[in-house]
Design goal:
Blueprint (H helix, E strand, L loop, with lengths): L2 E5 L7 H5 L11 E3 L5 E7 L2 E10 L2 E7 L3 H6 L1 H5 L13 H9 L12 H9 L5 H15 L1 E2 L12 E2 L3 H5 L3 H6 L4 H12 L1 H5 L6 H9 L6 H11 L13 H10 L6 H7 L7 H10 L20
Antiparallel strand pairs: 1-5, 2-3, 3-4, 4-5, 6-7
Length: 305
């Protein structure tokens, strides 16, 4: 039987935009959007696995949860959905950002409170294409995770809970290879899994201290820490540096310049200090894209090596 809770947001609210950043590709076994618009998430909580179904209707969000982690998920439901976020702290400083801000008044920054479920897929995304990373996450969770709790007639087919930390650490080298994950990334995941309890504490830290805690693990740098904190802590200033595309997209959108680097992007974002990640979200929501001049980065075939 499902446990339920309802949350009423203050002001406009966009459930899909708020939670969409938690999905790791269209085939993510832990995140689905059903034909009726309901969002399904599967998480490994401190209380155990839990499945969460969310539906927005009549100005409120209704949540239903199953499994040992159901109560934990519903206790934190408002926080997940952005109740602790303060969109009023943001003031647009560029016309393009202001236009996106007006067109998406319901955007909030989600906060899962779960570090590893954002950290591990972020590690898998290091220096590879999105498609490669999404495939690796999908294959590993399908192979080593467990079925999502809940009634089989309701839970979307194929949804699974990510492995426990111990199970991540025990994945054989050939399985990483089969999923297209090189030795450097797999070793980083294993190191993180071995200190999972310490890393999960970052969810209760301020963003600066949390970033330091994450980067204490070899192989986790500012890029991975920011990508993680954006999701687990709802960190409004955790701007992603070291990204191949983001500086160029931000630079082109705000100035028309094509070759922007991290340093230039950070200068552009100075007026948004404290809200730089949110500013980047609005830039990406603007729809402006850097014109392509070269072929896409080709995926590498680790499984064939």
């Amino acid at each position: 039987m499902a446990t339920t809770r309802t949350w009423v947001p203050q002001g406009p609210y966009d459930l899909g935009r708020t939670l969409g950043v938690l999905a790791r590709g269209p085939g993510d076994p832990a995140y689905r959007v059903a034909p009726d618009g309901a969002i399904w998430r599967v998480s490994r909580t401190p209380a155990g696995p839990g499945t969460l179904r969310l539906r927005a209707r009549d100005g409120e969000v209704a949540g239903e949860a199953w499994g040992p982690g159901a109560e934990w998920l519903l206790d934190r439901l408002p926080v997940l959905l952005g109740a602790g976020d303060d969109p009023g702290a943001f003031a647009p400083r560029h016309r393009l950002v202001a236009d996106a801000w007006r067109r998406h008044p319901g955007l909030r920054l989600a906060r899962t409170g779960l570090v590893l479920e954002s950290l591990i897929p972020s590690i898998l995304e290091q220096k590879v294409t999105s498609d490669e990373a999404y495939r690796a996450w999908r294959l590993l969770v399908q192979r080593f995770g467990e079925p999502a709790p809940g009634p089989v007639e309701l839970v979307p087919r194929g949804m699974r809970v990510m492995p426990e930390p111990r199970d991540w650490a025990l994945i054989p080298s050939w399985e990483w290879h089969r999923a297209g994950v090189d030795a450097k990334r797999s070793a980083t995941v294993v190191r993180a899994a071995r200190v999972a309890a310490r890393l999960e504490e970052a969810a209760a830290m301020d963003d600066a201290a949390a970033s330091v805690r994450l980067q204490a693990v070899a192989g986790i740098g500012p890029w991975t820490a920011a990508e993680t904190l954006q999701r687990c802590n709802g960190a409004p200033d955790a701007v992603t540096v070291g990204d191949l595309h983001l500086p160029r997209v931000v630079g082109y959108a705000l100035t028309g310049e094509r070759g922007m680097d991290d340093e230039g992007m950070l200068r552009l974002l100075e007026p948004y200090e404290g809200q730089r990640y949110r500013a980047c979200r609005y830039v990406l929501l603007s729809g402006v894209r850097l014109p392509r001049r070269a072929p896409r980065f080709a995926p590498r075939d680790f499984a064939g090596i």
